[in-house]
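#random but structural
TW: two for the price of one
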Amino acid sequence: MPGECIFCKIVNREMPAEFLYEDEACVVFRDIHPAAPVHLLLVPKKHIRSVNDLKDEDKGIVSHLFLIARDMAKQSGVRDSGYKLLFNVEKGGGQVIFHLHLHLIGGWKKP
């Protein structure tokens, strides 16, 4: 439910988060449980439960998230060293918060 969704509350500024980026369609902030030195969440402002709930009219949102991820990778200093972009889908796929979001993960040191 959007009313109970933690990401909806963050988007609506009902819960604190430092936005690294915001526009009319999405926000970007750091994951509070990072899996890497750089772990950002790109969250659309529109509540979409998961990838399985995307509709044809949401094509623009998904492509927008990828373009913002490209820019945030550069801003975070991981563009050239490499990074991962990841959608977790449903519980079996690791989705914990049921509001579509894209993980940008990187910043590991080379061995």
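TW: number two ↓
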Amino acid sequence: MTNSRSQARSAARLAAVQALYQQQMEGTALARLLNEFHQHRLGQTVEDEEYADAEVDFFDDIVSGVDARRAELDEKLVGRLASGWTLARLDKTMLQILRAGAYELIARPDVPKATAISEYVDVAKAFFDKREAKFVNGILDAVAKDVRD
């Protein structure tokens, strides 16, 4: 994979987490959400924040896939949380990072397991400190063991 494609996928993952967060907070319909990100976020500058050029089809697949398979993904994630923990207790951004990562591990066999995990650990580092990034690594690694050979 070329470096620019790799960067475009990293940007797509970060944007997907942001879109999923927005969807959870505002209840935005999927088509409207995707359109808004295509028109106004991906590769644009919004409120002085530059959104990198993202691989749009990859972004669409993650957001649409998480939207379509949310119950399945949540079930996988709940099974990996410490006893007594629920998804509702997780930070809302953290939940979207885990959903997107789990989706990629389950539905994108073209993406190597280690790549998917490390990419979402990097996304977590954009929002949280090291402890949360390790949490993402642990949960996604457990999901990967469950869904990949």
